[in-house]
Amino acid sequence: MPAAGSPRADRGPILPGGTLGILGGGQLGSMFAAAAKRMGYRVEAISDVADCPAARVCDRVHVGAYDDPAFLAQVGRGLDVVTFEFENVPAAAGEALAQVTVVRPEPQVLHTTQDRAREKAFLVAHGFACAPHRVVRSRHELREAVAALGLPAVLKTAAFGYDGKGQAKLARPADVEPAWEALNAGADGPRTFVLEGWIDFDCEISVVAARGFDGEVAAFAPARNAHANHILDISSVPSGLPDSVLAAAADIASRLLAALGVVGVACVEFFLTKDGRVLVNEIAPRTHNSGHLTIEACETGQFEQQVRAVCGLPLGSTRQVGPAAMANLLGDCWENDPARAPRDPDWAAALAVPGVRLHLYGKREPRPGRKMGHLTALADSPAEAVARVTEARRRACRG
Ligand code: AMP
Questions:
Q1: CA-closest candidate to residue 139, choices 193, 180, 184
Q2: What is the CA(371)–ligand 1 centre distance, in A?
């Protein structure tokens, strides 16, 4: 079923030679641009900084503020379609672009998924199982929510949180007040939070899926994800989970993309509970870190799939050619002793590990916790693929 209200409903696909816009200038934008340029498109990024990873690959970067509708409208007029690589932009940015060009997914999807309180309300209203939670807008509501959900629990800012930023675990009653103070520190006004009951999960998985203009959904196999300090550390596929769990996750992802009306790529992250439930953790209306291994491991990678989906082209096969694993390279891997010159990781040693591929995003400053690149390995089994990326990273970061 064609997406309702799309300005391109009767205009057919955007073909190679067209100009694609990407809102955000990070690594997801640069990998999108690489895939699109290979296919013969021109790609222009919209970013609030000129020296961004996407600038290395895009034909042009439009530098301006995400909250400047006049700037966005002027840029958008030169683009055949715009998609997102980053959701922490005002939803009004998507709306300003949608006045002048096609935006996929539609700004409404961004509006729902960029705020945890709205996202949770959407999940509940559409019958998707998620962690028990309460929306919290004051200290008093936090105390009530803690009483209702019990401890441990996680307090998360509703907006502008990522990679564990804006989150605090409440393990004991004594953690409640300090967490409230810490997460409100520096806030200009009252903030909205979501308190989530703690999920004692068996593992975390994610499904990256594309939904085409005609409503067709193509999902990649669920990735098994391990986090370190709330940041994705290692993803591997196949996950080794029972077929029933894989089918349930793929089915939820497919129904969620349809319910949201996504045209493009989205990622659904899940908790698998010890008693076998598949709970939605969060939704990203874009490609995802846990899908990077699809570049090497699948017949169509997630970035080419994003190009196909937003351009109204047939979706590619998500078939996996072999087991694969991905390890993130954070800024911590760079030796950054202020007393000495910064030292790059030992890439030659990492690349000596068989089956390993290196992706670096071109970020100049290697700060702790900053995603600087990733390694992907293919192997005969997922365990061997994980062993290879782990060993390659150990060698790169000098153990
Ligand atoms: P999020 O940004 O919500 O994806 O949270 C980052 C990571 O924190 C997740 O991938 C989990 O590893 C952990 N986490 C978040 N929420 C919970 C929860 N309710 N229970 C247990 N762990 C959680």
A1: 180
A2: 18
Tokens 């491991």 correspond to 297
Q: Which of 281, 288, 328 to mutate to test the pocket of ligand 1 (most atoms within 8 A of CB)?
A: 281
Residue 169's beta-bridge partner residues?
154
Q: Tokens in use for 280?
A: 């939605």
CA distance 194 to 155: 6
Q: Whose CA is nearest to atom 9 of ligand 1?
A: 230
Question: Measured from the CA of 227, which atom of ligand 1 is nearest?
Answer: 12
Q: Give the tens place of pLDDT for each residue, 115-151.
A: 999 999 999 999 999 999 999 999 999 999 999 999 9
Segment 292-342, tens digit of pLDDT? 999 999 999 999 999 999 999 999 999 999 999 999 999 999 976 677 776
Other C-beta atoms lying within 10 Å of the C-beta of residue 160: 12
* pTM of the shown model: 0.95
> Which domains does the chain carry?
19-103 (3.40.50.20), 132-197 (3.30.1490.20), 201-396 (3.30.470.20)
Instruction: For the sheet with 133-136, list strands across it.
Output: 133-136, 193-197, 153-157, 167-170
- pLDDT tens-digit map of 224-255: 999 998 899 999 999 999 999 999 999 999 99
Number of H helices, E strands in the chain: 12, 18
